[in-house]
Amino acid sequence: MDEQKLREFLSRFKSGELGMEEAVERLRKFPYEDIGFASVDHHRALRCGFPEVIFCQGKSKGQIIEIAKRILDESNELLLTRVDDDVARSVISVFPDAVHNEVARTVTVERGTKAGRTGLVAVVTAGTSDIPVAEEAKVAADMMKAKVTTIFDVGVAGVHRILSHSKVLADASCIIVVAGMEGALASVVGGMVAKPVIAVPTSIGYGASFNGLAALLGMLNSCASNVVVVNIDNGFGAGYVAGMINRGKS
Predict the structure, then answer these.
(1) Fewest CB atoms less than 10 Å from the CB: which of 51, 85, 107, 191?
(2) Does the predicted model carry a pTM greater than 0.70?
């Protein structure tokens, strides 16, 4: 139950519109609801500022839809990650207001009053091949109510490209840098700004990149003190944390 839903619940109960039996039934599944194959954490929005996110990989369509239904019963927001096209079509057939981002592999739902985006999170990629992970980060930060801008294909092989975006980077409250290969772009950006840089290594690269391990280790060994690192291809984690940082800045 998110804050808006909780306020509505209390208002209806105080006015007598919501009966005691229905109120007890609503509270019975607070803070979580056991549906057998999942324990849906309805309290997470109040604890952490955003409802539970559904990681779809490894889940059946039926499981995903049932969890989504339970979340939307108590929240106006829903985020699904690692969604394939078949699952997305099934979800949209049940929730017509859902939005599928094919590149990010996400499905989102936003209902009720849509708060305006604030602050600025910049999402930067070294190459075009890194865009899917960057798009996942963008969607997550956007759902956290951050204004998001993207800067694509500005890797260190042509360092003048990132230097031309200095003003945007300076204006951002937080920067996400998504890079494969050797992952050097995060250190370059970290040396340009006085703000947090969240580095996301991707599994893009030739054989010796070891599916992102080379970029991960390069980012972990960054000489820029403002660089922190999430796991390989974890655009969602970067976007979520960037959104939290942005909230504190805006």
Answers:
(1) 85
(2) yes
